[in-house]
Amino acid sequence: MDDDAEARAVDRLRRDLDSDAWDDRFGRLREQPEFVGSLRLVAGHP
Predict the structure, then answer these.
(1) In which domain of life is the source organism classified (predicted)?
(2) pTM
(3) Which residues fall within 8 angstroms of residue 9, CB to CB, at 6 or more apart?
(4) DSSP code at position 23
């Protein structure tokens, strides 16, 4: 993923988390006992 695409993805994730849109779409994943799939770790630094 190039830097511009990464920045767009992080910006969208930030907006979705701030507005609860992420929870509206994916909140059910928090209740699953396990997840099978790939993940990308996104860490924020102040």
Answers:
(1) Bacteria
(2) 0.61
(3) 1
(4) H
